[in-house]
């Protein structure tokens, strides 16, 4: 690749050379509250500085210091409507340490024990221990290389030498963790096209090109323009975010930009599918990624680059001393942005090695080693050990550095919290992640999003393996491939959700909603449940799941050519009716180890001689409200519980579709332990309770309910 030619700033980057001009404020301009306030006192030694100070003010006050502090404090206010200039704002001033002010992820970047003793003046608008933002004086002390400083930034223009210094620090010192992986060679990214930002031509990627990728939100208005024909140059007018991204590339002294809208022929289904499948390679190979974490669509622009300006940074010149605000934590702004809510941008941010993230107020940089705010200045040249190992704590702490972090299940869970404009994209928008895991030394493949491998750790269902994992003999019993796929079916939603048309009910992709925090639970003790699984081909024949079938599916791409989304599952099943308790278990006398506050449906069996009723809680995937038709059907129908894992206590609850033989998932059952719902008295002494628990805590539904072995069709 060509060498990045952006220049390295000389010496520490501590203060803008041209501070924002401010009028002088003296004591006679201040109100009585502010006239008695000594901001510098908060930065003195511990024995002489004041404790937390509670103040109030208005952004429209005649007092300049009230305006400055109230405007700074307003950053942390969460109100249904914008704060007015005359709204009274109550806040606290308190000395805070650097880790508390800017987070451990930034302190990890800075390192050095002295930084833990560096104090700032925190502004708290609520009761949070962490300040909403900080203020510091700007003076010659800010230029001492070991001290961080709050930098004044311009509302209208970004100092690109700052951004260049971040990128060069990473390029020069983080080769192991932030450089594109060796296996990604530019010429191997088939069909890659780039925009030449100087000529605005769309060209085939040169062999040695260094390019920047753009991650942004199209928005509804621009999504309607998605059928851009294959073109050799940009149209005369492009959305503002893309126009600004072109300028960022040039200001970084680079040449090429990749934008999905113009670098993929949106009218070619073949090219679109091929390029979508290699998104992991496209973003991983980029020198850096511009992230537009601002606005709701591509018309917003990148603040500080083009026409879009940024809010003025609160600042005041008080008795000859300039004080400035750090603004709010950009990480919070990014996580609450429209960009962070969209499904497509998940893998774009994940695979990017270096990220220049534009928010409405400032630019934030994150690689696998470094976290930088535009408003926080410190000397990167004196970084103690120029370390080359990944650190956590940032926005992308599950990203892919020298070794991928997090299991496939963790990425799927995070991904399902995001939204899609077109529900049919649910698999496509995560295809880069699936591709990466399928090509690891110990691969994890998937079918309709359900992982299909038996490599488990207690912390992660399908870990990111950089080496070949030796097969565990206990995992290679007869039928272990069926059991491995059955394990992938044992997910649960965070809440009942609507169905996603066109996708099977047995996959999380068939539901519009987030998966639970531990969607697959702790399934490392999955074991053999004697499950057999067949896939249905287009001709109606069934093909037993095997390594050969899995390989065939993996090679067919996202269309699963030749297969339908219908499974044939042979397993132990129980035909059962559900019990509905309107108040759940809140009013009953219950003896059990867990608490199930939200369940209203149960599988119930009389406890016999001990009295009471044994209940197993049902967690619904479907939305059923008391009084609606589905709720009434669930109360009267005979349903089927399929044993997928006795060891992990997971039973899949299914019902027959109207007028057919195919069943669909409606929820799952925790088949062990049972809950005793007893209306009678119960001796709660330790001895009696222990004896009761010894007998009942491990009562498994499939051990006491009538069961039979049967094959079902599940769609």
UniProtKB/TrEMBL annotation:
Record's protein name: Heterokaryon incompatibility domain-containing protein
Organism of provenance: Fusarium kuroshium
Domain Heterokaryon incompatibility intervals: 211-348
One Pfam family named in its UniProt record: HET
